[in-house]
Amino acid sequence: MNEDIKLIILLGVCSYIIDIYSGKNTYYKSCYNKYNVQIELLIHHILNIYAQFGWLSNNKILLQGYVISCIILLCHWNANNDRCILTEKINKKCNIPIEKPFRDILYAIGFKHLKYYNILHRIYIFVTGIIALYKLSKL
């Protein structure tokens, strides 16, 4: 398995652990023991790490997937009022208000509390998608 993939999975697992244990008795109280929900949440964290940092890879397949995921993600956010369908699905299963954000690494370090977070995040995804395209042209 590619080292970049291993790192994405490892960081995704770390992000999941931080999220689940910081909200075990409050945020995720109603779904802490629902293993199917926990697996979905873990996958969401891994996908999120890829969406945030996949552009750093030099693996051609990961970069191609990253560019495609940027396009899909930006279109999805545009069609769904800056909401992620995975977040909404997990929030519903955990009895968390639908407007509550995904508690990813950006949430943990406080970025999601910024006034212009949504537009900044869209710009970040767009720019990193362009960087990934540039890197692909050089491979």
UniProtKB/TrEMBL annotation:
TM helices/strands, residue ranges: 6-23, 61-79, 119-137
Keywords: Membrane, Transmembrane, Transmembrane helix
UniProt name for this protein: TLC domain-containing protein
